[in-house]
Amino acid sequence: MAPFRNSRAAALPAKLSRSWLLASAADEAHFAPALASEADSVVFDMEDAVPAEGKAEARERVVEALSTGMTAWVRVNGIETDYWADDLAALSKAPGLRGVMLAMTEKPEQVTHTAMRLQAGTPVLALVESALGIENATAIASAPGTFRLAFGVGDFRRDTGASDDPMALAYARSKLVVASRVGQLPGPIDGPTPGTLGEKLLDACKVTASMGMTGKLCLMPEAADTINKGLSPSESEIVWAHELLEAHAAGAVVGDGSYLPRLARAQKISSLADSYGLWNA
């Protein structure tokens, strides 16, 4: 019997997903806890989490899971590797595939070539992990097949020598945010903060949100709920939006040039609160 997928998370559109949980495909025992967690989206990871000698077995493991009732995203190996074509050939027939995350995306055509090897309409999440990928982010965001951008912080830091200080990574995060807007995509997904839970993870989410990013990768199921809270409208924002929308519905007069932007923000907060089930949380 297939594991129970968190029903709330399963019903949420991936464009609104806040927490993206990477579940290692090195062992199928990782799949069920990930699917039952609070993660908005679950990604079976066949790339970083699996050594070269285990790639074929991991691929078989994932296809079997997605053919026997499980549904998930899958992180596939980069287009420059020997595994990319086999990954896509196998996944293209898997009924439970929700989309793929393409590792090491550096050029727009890499996304398009990936999408062309999958069933029509399968979304591709472009994981940008290098200086070249960041500089090409606008083109990647506008490429046919690109669903959303994500930031591979660890590999980007290795590529550039940048520290994990928010200021050192501000340009890259901003580039992904602006590129997503230009490409008319949902907000980008920030990289994980490994080994961090609780208040420290909430602090990391504040950085993510302040940059304009709307999702975050995580490596532990217990991190998902914190990320969901950290990347949702706050209680005070929801109250403010509710009061403004009530006043508007009652015929509030436009007072100055800031009114319409504030109204739009209130409508967005209200919509997100509905989608995330926050009104009575």
How would you describe this structure to a colleague?
The chain is of the alpha/beta class and 281 residues long. 46% of the residues lie in helices and 14% in strands. The protein contains 13 helices and eight strands. An eight-stranded parallel β-sheet has the order 6-5-4-3-2-1-8-7. α12 (235-249) packs across α13. The mean pLDDT is 93. This is CoA ester lyase. Its cofactor is Mg(2+). Residues 1-25 form the signal peptide. Pfam families: HpcH_HpaI.
Low-confidence stretches: none
Structural class: alpha/beta
Total number of helical segments?
13
Main sheet?
A: 8 strands, parallel
- Which bin fits the share of residues in helices? 40-55%
Spatial gap, N to C terminus? 32 Å
Q: Beta fraction of the residues?
A: 5-15%
Strand ordering within the main sheet: 6-5-4-3-2-1-8-7
Radius of gyration: 19 Å
Question: H/E series, N to C?
Answer: HEHEHEHEHEHHEHHEHEHHH
What is the β-strand count?
Answer: 8
Principal-axes geometry comes out as: globular
- Average predicted local confidence, pLDDT: 93
Summarize the structure.
The chain is built from 13 helices and eight strands.
